[in-house]
Design brief:
There is one protein chain. By secondary structure, this protein is an alpha/beta fold. It has a domain at about 5-90 and about 165-215: Cobalt-precorrin-4 Transmethylase, domain 1, CATH 3.40.1010. Helix content is about 60%, strand content about 10%. It has 14 helices and five strands. It has helices at about 15-25, 40-45, 50-55, 60-75, 85-100, 115-135, 140-170, 190-195, 210-215, 225-235, 245-260, 270-285, 290-300, 305-320; strands at about 5-10, 30, 80-85, 175-185, 200-205. It is globular.
Length: about 325
């Protein structure tokens, strides 16, 4: 029986060894990235990793660099490696089209480029609106802006995962075992892949950080309030306004202020990013809607470390008042 493993992971350098362990068990690897010039040369070592990455706009440089070195090792071991991310590939083509002087109105509305353009435009606009509102608007306006962005982001992810599943299905079928790499927000991709491949193909999903999280006393997967809100809208795009939705949106505002933004490179064996994210999740889980309302003006312009201390002090004071 053919086997497909969907490996869900945070894109942090500390997860590379876990990705390597699972990837080595498969005949082919499908990375969550669009085809890039020089990729084949980088895999064989003809092009230096840093020279290859210099031409790309990568969000996490340390993770991308370590992943490239891992891909070189796996290539040398005979594993097939592919870059499959059609949404981002189409988006890059659209950017090139606009750079040539074309306008959005010139896009063919019956082409696959058009829904990709709309999804990206709507999500980007909603994100910019949120940033602006978070700095100048009220708490309630910011909560509304967060929810609007989450809805647009969810629509973008639905399209992105759908396009990727469609392109992956015929390609993974060529190998007895395939590893599909993806971020944790792409959890719905598992269901889409199952729908696309033949019934005799086994599709399993792995949360690579689960074993590490168990050592930290956490049984569930690593989803912050913003990811939870986005997943809620991915699975239920037409859901009516609920208390849960409001609370997740409010918590995500605080979460975004206290989470560490810098990519950490040292002492990766202690899992600094996972520990940081888990600590922030546990902290914001304690916050009610009114708690977030009170904290919002205190943290909205504070740096991450200062914002976290403000929230920690608030929670300590709240517990003391209860007792």
């Amino acid at each position: 029986m053919q086997k497909i493993t969907l490996g869900l992971s945070v894109h942090r350098p500390e997860m590379i060894p876990y990705m390597a362990d699972w990837m080595r068990r498969h005949d082919a690897i499908f990375l969550e990235e669009p085809p890039a010039d020089g990729f084949a040369q980088m895999l064989t070592g003809e092009l230096a990793v840093d020279d290859y990455l210099r031409e790309l706009d990568v969000e996490y440089p340390a993770f991308s660099r370590n992943l490239c070195y891992l891909m070189q090792e796996l290539k040398a071991e005979g594993i097939k490696i592919f870059q499959i991310e059609p949404f981002l590939e189409i988006l890059l083509n659209i950017h090139e089209y606009f750079a040539e002087g074309h306008l959005p109105e010139e896009l063919n509305k019956n082409s696959v480029q058009y829904p990709v353009y709309l999804a990206e435009r709507n999500a980007t606009k909603a994100l910019l609106d949120y940033y602006q509102t978070a700095m100048t608007g009220s708490f309630d306006e910011t909560v509304a802006a967060v929810k609007q962005f989450a809805r647009m982001d969810a629509a973008r992810f639905r399209l992105r995962d759908s396009l990727r599943a469609q392109e992956l299905a015929p390609k993974v079928g060529k190998y007895s075992s395939s590893y599909v790499e993806a971020g944790v927000i792409h959890y719905p991709l598992w269901r889409l892949l199952r729908q696309q491949v033949l019934h005799q193909v086994q599709v399993r999903m792995m949360f690579l950080a689960d074993d590490v999280l168990k050592t930290m006393g956490e049984k569930s997967h690593l989803y912050g309030p913003g990811d939870q809100l986005t997943l809620l809208f991915i699975f239920h795009p037409n859901i009516a306004k609920t208390t849960r939705e409001q609370v997740l949106a409010a918590r995500s505002i605080i979460f975004s202020k206290i989470i560490e933004k810098i990519e950490l490179k040292d002492d990766l064996k202690t899992f600094p990013h996972l520990r940081d994210e888990l600590a922030c999740i546990r902290m914001t889980k304690q916050l009610r809607l009114d708690d977030c309302r009170q904290l919002f003006p205190l943290v909205r312009r504070a740096k991450s470390a200062d914002a976290r201390q403000i929230v920690a002090d608030y929670l300590t004071q709240s517990k003391q008042q209860i007792w």
